[in-house]
Amino acid sequence: MLVVGPNGAGKTNLLESLHVGTQGFSPRARSDSQLVRFGEEAGRIVVRGERGGASVEVEVGLSLRDGRRALLNGARLRAAEQLRGELATLVFTPDRLAIVKGGPAVRRAYFDRTLARLAPAQSSLPPEYGAALAQRNAALRRVASNHSSRAALEPWTQQVVSLGVELVRARLETLARLEPPFTEQAEALELEDAALAYDGEAPTAAELEARLERDLDRGATGAGPHLHDVRMLSGTRDLRSFGSQGEQRAAVLALLLAEARVLEERHGTAPLLLLDDVLSELDPARRGALAAQVARYGQVVITSTTPDALPLEPAQLVAVSPGRAVRA
């Protein structure tokens, strides 16, 4: 589906509503007050479709007073965010370029979310590690201020090491699943020799003990997966520093399509792909390559200001104007 309209007409709002309606949360807004129309107290999103030949209906209600609620095929969910465990949706927005252009924290967060989608049984590892790390850092500060003994550090050091080892292993497994389709998709988008490289080693008790004095001075743990990075490469070039805007965009799109491939192989159904303003800053060759790739997937929604930006005939063309979306 190609969604067209002038800037400010509401194309991104339409994609955002599809994301909220299938995942229970917005990919960009931090609160419901940013989702509900100005001057209104509530909003409602209804999405109907098919999954594996069975009908699916989702209703998400947004209320500034009562919060968010979600129904899946008429059954009330405990939390709207449970939808992401039921339905798969992946989104590209221009700010996703930060995955390549931003700092290590952005990439860690992205790949940890990917880890949770590809291996739900391991989804608790990043927050559990973060909680143990916070406890160790608090213990470091207590020891440094003479409010606690060094012995109190030991249990949290063990937790950080144990969970850190598991988290690094899970991240490496995630990258191992993603890299082959990532390389393939990147090549299709004319990004040669693309690869993912994990920077960092699993923590050890000996390593943390060796740097204990420095950690006490800083009041923070100076080694572990909370400081690691994932480099996105084209040959020997790190795309963060040496990639063009088009190459960086191609890399993010290749990641998205790679994850879509893995999810489809694991679950038997393709995720919904939401691609907002994806065609801008891609040269004609990469536009054609992207069009050929997304044509192989299930439901894909792309926004553009003009129909001719997509070099193929869309299955559906929707024209958006303020407050309206009609099939063209």
Main attributes of the structure:
alpha/beta, globular, 20% strand, four-stranded antiparallel β-sheet, Glutathione S-transferase Yfyf (Class Pi), Chain A, domain 2, six-stranded mixed β-sheet, 328 residues, single chain
In short:
By secondary structure, the chain is of the alpha/beta class.
3D architecture notes:
The mean pLDDT is 94. This protein is of the alpha/beta class. It has helices at 11-23, 98-101, 104-118, 125-144, 153-188, 205-210, 212-218, 239-242, 245-267, 284-294, and strands at residues 2-4, 42-51, 54-63, 67-72, 75-76, 89-92, 194-199, 229-234, 237-238, 272-275, 300-304, 317-321, 324-327. A hairpin with a 2-residue loop joins strand 4 (67-72) and strand 5. It is 42% helix and 20% strand. It is globular, with a radius of gyration of 22 Å. The strands form 3 sheets. The protein has a 6-stranded mixed beta sheet with strand order 6-10-11-1-12-13, with helices on both faces. It has a 4-stranded antiparallel beta sheet with strand order 2-3-4-5, covered by helices on one side. The protein is built from 10 helices and 13 strands. It has a domain at 98-245: Glutathione S-transferase Yfyf (Class Pi), Chain A, domain 2 (Up-down Bundle), CATH 1.20.1050.90.
